[in-house]
Amino acid sequence: MNKYTKFPLPNRNQLTAAIAAMMVSTTSFAIDFHGYFRSGIGATAGGGDQACFSAPGVSKYRLGNECETYAEIQLGSEVFRQDDTSFYVDSMIAYITPQENDFETVNDDDATIAVRQFNVRGTNVIKSLPGSTLWIGKRFYQRHDVHINDFFYWDVSGPGAGLEDIDVGTGLLHVAWTRSANNETGDGADLGTGDPVTNDIIDVRWTGLPVNPGGTLEVGIDYGRANLDDEQESAGVDDQDGYMFTAEHQQANFLGGYNKLTLQYAKDSLVASGGRSNSSAANQGSMVRVIDHGLIPLGSDMDMFYVGIYEDTSLDNNQGSQWTSFGVRPTYYWSPLMSTAVELGFDRVSPEASGAEDSDLQKVTIAQQWSPGETFFARPQLRLFATYANWSDDYNAASDSIGPDDSNGLTFGAQAEVWW
Question: Which among 117, 115, 120 is positioned nearest to 88, based on CA atoms?
C-alpha cells in the first residue's frame, strides 16, 4: 500500500488496460469539426497595402474587397444520447485582424482572439414538447444575412437561453432571451459609471409557414430593453426600450433558384441594428427596411446572386439616413474547377439632416476562381481579383492606402475563402 493512496497502485497490465478503456471511451464521442476562413494578400495601384471600399456606416460588397484575415474554428460533440434524447456541446473560437478601413496597420499584434460560441443544447429533454431543443450559452442564433455584402439584418446572437423547434401544428415556434451591451449615453459621451449598459432582448419567431406552392413565411418580433444597475440608475443613464418586427418570405424554385423578400420595422433601441439592442437615447426613432435577394441560374454554365436593399432610419436627433443598395455577382463556370465572377455594387447613403450631401459608392470586381464544383457556394475557393471603386468627393470611402483627396481607387490581389 502506497502511503499517498487509499488503494493499491495498479500493475503495468492493469494500467495498460485502463488507458485502452479510456481511449475507447473518449473516441466514442465523435468530434464535429466545422469552421470558416478567409485571408489573402493585396495591393493598391500606385503603391501601398490593399484598400477596401465602403460607403459610410453600411455593409460593403465583399468580392475582392476584404482586407482582413478572419477565421472561425468550431468544435462540437453529442456527448449523450438515449433513444431520442441528446445533449450537444458546441464551441467556436475566432481570429480577427482589424480591417484596413479602420485606419489601422494590420499585423498579428493587433489581432483579436474571441470565444464566439460556447453552449449546450438538449433535444427532447422536455417530453411534453417532442422535437424541441433547449439551449443555454453563447451562440450564433438563427442569423439572417445577405451573402455578397455580409449584411446581417436579423441577428440577436450572444449569451442567452432559449427553446427552439417547438411544433405548433403549422410551422415551428422559437423563443430566446439574449443579451447585448452599449457603452455610451444618448449624447455619445462616455457613461462614466464603470460598466457598459446591459441590454436584454426577447426574440420570438414562427418559421416554416406554408403560404404558396414552394413558398414559406417566417415572422418574428424582438423586444429589447436596458437592464441598468444601481450606479447607472443614479447617473440617469437612458433605459429606453424598443422593438423590431420582421417578416420574410422565401420562395424555392424561383426562376430555377430561390428568392428571399424581407420586411422589417423597428423602434428606438432596436433601430439601426439587426436585432441587437442599444438603449442609447441617440437611437430614438424608427426604421423601415426592405430587402430582396436570391440566387438564380442564367443558363447551364452561369448563375447570379443579386440583392436590393432600402433602409430608411428617422431619428429624433435628425441623424438618421436613407440607404439604398443594389448588387449582383454573376459567375460563369468554365469547368468543374474554374470560374469567373464579376461583382457590381452600388450604395447611396442620404443623411436625414437638412443640407447634408448624399454619399455614393460604385464598385466593380472581376475574379478568376478555382473551387470544387460548378455552384455559387462551392468552397474552398481560390481567387485572383482586381477591384475598382469610385465615390463621392465629400468623404473618403477607403483606408489610408488611398489619398484623402482621391475619389476612386484600384486594388488587386489574391484571396482564399472556405467554410466546412
Answer: 120
Q: In this structure, are residues 176 and 141 in contact, taking their beta carbons and an 8 Å threshold?
A: yes
Domain ranges for the chain, please list them: 124-297
- CA gap 237, 404 in Å, rounded: 37
SS3 235: helix
Question: CA 61 to CA 326: how far, in whole Å?
Answer: 10
Grid coordinates in use for 43? 495591393
CA end-to-end distance (rounded Å), the chain: 53
Domain 124-297 has CATH 3.80.10.10: no
Written as tens digits, the pLDDT of the chain (420 aa) is: 443 334 344 454 554 454 455 444 444 569 999 999 999 999 999 888 999 999 999 999 999 999 999 999 999 999 999 999 999 999 999 998 865 433 333 455 568 899 999 999 999 999 999 999 999 999 999 999 999 999 999 999 999 999 999 999 999 999 999 998 776 544 444 445 557 888 899 999 999 999 999 999 999 999 998 888 888 888 888 778 999 999 999 999 999 999 999 999 999 989 977 666 676 666 889 999 999 999 999 999 999 999 999 999 999 999 999 999 999 999 999 999 999 999 999 999 999 999 889 999 999 999 999 999 999 999 999 999 999 999 987 777 766 556 666 889 999 999 999 999
Backbone angles phi, psi at 234, to 5 degrees: -65, -35
What whole-number distance in Å separates Cα of residue 89 and Cα of residue 342? 40
Among the listed residues 307, 294, 204, 286, the one whose alpha carbon sits nearest the alpha carbon of residue 246? 204
The neighbouring-strand residues paired with 58 are none
